[in-house]
Design brief:
With 599 residues, this protein is mostly helical. It is built from 26 helices and no strands. The model is unreliable at 1-34, 234-252 and 593-599 (pLDDT under 50). It is a multi-pass membrane protein.
């Protein structure tokens, strides 16, 4: 028994202290200062030929799957809000997915690099995502729908984080811009297909098919990934076959292991120092409090009520405390100083680099503004012009098609010229111009305005997600002994802030719209339903049942309320522009030795 326990403990120590399963080659490359052109920073050989293309396709398909679940719900918000009589909670249909998608991004990166490995973590995340989709599709209340979205968001977090991490490791730095462009293009395509499919299902079938569709797509992505992504094996047929049947190197821990007190102490150390669980709990609780404040403010409670104010105070305080803990308290522990593998989820060592900090803050604000625009462009056509979900979603093509073309073009420019900052500056500049022009969209807009005013935000989003991720990655020191963990942390941090921006955008835009329309209804002394206080749900339901044209008095009020949401998005783009100016001036190194798979 003693030898068995010793073996189990040894395996746990090995797993938690090593960043990946095989790292000898990578360590020798860092020590010698001469990286092997055939291996990435994790000591993994670059896939070639068909295997490389299949890996890229599987990752893009998986990213498409996760992105589809963000965009497909934009056209069903009105329907589920009326069906479940809970329009004030519709922001959580988006945030319920985006919030866990954001807060767990950093944890998924740590699990993948320190415990399970990239492949098992990706498989687990897809399975969790599929389970959440089943819960959503069979939901009988708004709360159960939101619960399913949370489960799907947990899996989607792993998918979106790990696709970019894995994609960045299967090609050289020179090719990284191109493969990130493929990942960005998959998001852009999902942005086109998602609202369109959501509109078709909601109008002609049922909104539940917006979630059932994830099952066959997820199954296909899972099979392709299992078969072709096998980083530690040969790229021949035998390597592929072993990849199909390999899942994890972790040996099962016997029940007796949990009966030893010392093992619980060891597990406590792992959670505190290996996974930085304190920061995760503090930041997650803080973000949830802030979003609850935006959800309840003006609906369940008044904006100036103690409950709403306390939610904002506690939320902001917990987030600040989490950063103080990670930046200053966590590094002061003696165990952290003695073990280089113990790294905080958000490291001050990396964040204090101007290029890393500004790139990540930029993508946060751009995603915050973009998600706000996307959601209320759909609401604009549904509430102002009484368009069906399908017809409203068609208009998004003018916004999201430019995203696809932009990420592809920017990826080609990055791979050819090594440009990073020009791409970012192009993105934030077109973003603030496009957001300003979108405030002209009202109930008197012409057909040309309904198309033309939506183009620049899509261009801005595509360029920004391309430039900011690469800009943060190239700021890292490749000769550092913590480069591998830093690379995963910075890539997942970018995904974290991107998803966090989408989560906050999904809630705050509904809060601004509800507050605006309720104030206008109150000022006009209009009562929607007798003996009931006005609410955003009652206004939306009344508008749908008694549509009186886009230029009616109610139409004017709705138009002005939506315009306030667009003004808020303009403010977010302005902040993104300011931080974008100060992103890194470095270029991608195009002079590195090119391996065979670059040819």
């Amino acid at each position: 028994m003693a030898s068995s326990m010793g073996k189990i403990e040894s395996e746990i120590i090995t797993k938690t202290e090593h960043s990946i399963e095989s790292k000898t080659a990578a360590e020798s490359a860092i020590t010698s200062g001469i990286p092997d052109p055939e291996l990435n920073a994790f000591g993994q050989p670059y896939p070639k030929g068909v295997v490389l293309y299949a890996c890229t396709f599987s990752l893009a398909l998986a990213n498409f799957l996760a992105a589809l679940d963000i965009m497909i719900v934009t056209t069903l918000i009105d329907d589920v809000g009326q069906k479940f009589h809970a329009y004030s909670k519709t922001g959580w249909v988006v945030a319920g997915y985006s919030l866990p998608n954001a807060v767990l991004s950093l944890v998924w990166g740590r699990l993948a690099s320190s415990v399970f490995g990239f492949k098992p973590s990706m498989i687990i995340s897809i399975i969790i995502f599929e389970v959440g989709s089943i819960v959503c599709a069979s939901a009988q209340s708004m709360n159960s729908l939101i619960g399913g979205r949370v489960i799907a968001g947990i899996g989607g977090s792993g998918i979106q984080s790990l696709t970019f991490v894995i994609a960045s490791t299967i090609v050289t730095e020179r090719q990284r811009g191109i493969i990130i462009a493929f990942m960005g293009a998959s998001f852009g395509i999902a942005s086109v297909v998602g609202p369109f499919l959501g509109g078709v299902f909601t109008t002609h079938v049922t909104w539940r098919w917006c979630f059932w569709i994830n099952l066959p797509l997820g199954g296909l992505a899972l099979v392709i990934f299992i078969v072709f992504y096998n980083p530690y094996e040969r790229s021949d047929l035998n390597g592929l076959l072993s990849g199909v049947f390999s899942f994890s190197k972790i040996s099962p821990i016997k029940l007796a292991w949990f009966l030893k007190l010392n093992n619980w102490y060891r597990l406590f150390d792992i959670m505190i120092f290996q996974f930085d669980i304190v920061e995760f709990i503090l930041s997650s609780a803080g973000i949830v409090c802030l979003l609850l404040g935006f959800t309840f403010g003006g609906n369940r409670y008044n904006w100036n009520s103690y409950s709403t104010i306390l939610l904002f105070i506690f939320g902001g305080g917990l987030i600040v405390l989490s950063l103080i803990y990670d930046f200053f308290i966590f590094p002061s522990f003696s165990k952290v100083k003695q073990n280089i593998q113990y790294q905080p989820l958000i490291s001050w060592k990396n964040i204090k680099r101007r290029g890393i900090m500004t790139a990540n803050v930029t993508v946060f604000f751009i995603c915050l503004g973009y998600m706000t625009q996307i959601i209320y462009v759909v609401q604009y056509f549904q509430l102002i012009f009484n368009s069906s979900p399908w017809k409203a979603s068609v208009h998004l093509i003018a916004c999201v098609v430019p995203t696809v073309f932009t990420v592809i073009i920017c990826g080609a420019i990055n791979g050819r010229l090594g440009w990073v900052k020009p791409i970012t500056l192009f993105g934030v500049t077109t973003g603030i111009i496009g957001a300003g022009l979108m405030t002209l969209l009202d109930n008197h807009a012409t057909s040309a305005q309904k198309i033309g005013l939506l183009i620049l935000p899509g261009v801005a989003f595509g360029a920004t997600i391309q430039g900011t991720m690469i800009g943060a990655q190239i700021e890292l020191d490749e000769t550092s002994t913590t480069y591998r963990s830093d690379f995963v942390s910075i890539t997942t941090l970018n995904s974290f802030l991107k998803n966090l921006g989408q989560a906050i955008g999904g809630v705050i835009c509904e809060a601004v719209f509800s507050a605006s329309i309720l104030n206008k209804i109150s000022d006009a002394n209009i009562q929607i339903e007798e003996n009931k206080p006005n609410s955003s749900e009652s206004i939306v339901s009344y508008r749908s049942a008694h549509f009186d044209g886009p230029n009616s008095k109610l139409g004017d009020m709705l138009s002005d309320s939506i315009k306030n949401v667009f003004y808020m998005a303009l403010g977010f783009y302005a902040l993104g522009f300011i931080f974008g100016i100060f992103t890194t001036n470095k270029k991608v190194n195009l002079k590195k030795k090119i391996s065979d798979n670059d040819a």
